[in-house]
Amino acid sequence: MFNGIGLTTPRGSGTNGYVQRNLSHLRPRDDSYNRTQDFSEIKGPRMREPDQGILDHEKARQIELKVFELQVELEDEGRDQDYIDGRLYALREKLQKEAEEAEKSGRPGRKPPVSLRPNDTHAMAAAKKVEVEKMARAFGTSSNYQEGDAFNREKQEELRQQRVIERAERDKKREEEREARERERRLEREKREEEAKLRRRREYLEKKERELQERERE
Fold this sequence. Notes:
Blueprint: H1 52-76, H2 81-104, H3 121-139, H4 153-217
């Protein structure tokens, strides 16, 4: 017996009395998830959406910071107030226009997450969102993709049927466009033939008229 475990005496037990570990014992595994759970019920990681109001405020703050730096520089040079106001107004308009153009073109000009301050959570979230969208376009992942869809047979069958329908619609649209082009070419050809007939008819009439005039002069 060792530490209260084992036989009090090895007599009659057919053993030597030593306590040994049972190698055939299987310990139950502590799974952190239910194996019978459906993959569709598993929620993927959620990405924090940036607050557009805070981003706009930070953008305006950066513009005003550059305007203030120019103001201090011009005041140190001893410029008059009218000249300073004009330069500040021009710079502010230029920076705001550049920011609007960058926003419309889809390139907001945000810094990468590595160069941002740790407290710029919304700017980091916006940059991360752009990075995730770029990665999704690189891998061809659809915007409505859900984690676990690849293992859902019903979902895959539904997507396959949807692709078949979309392919049929594209083929139908392509056939309609081809027929429309053929119809336009046929109408254009008929129009040219009709114009050629009218031109030949006009030339024939002009020729007859000239012949008639020549006979009358003779």
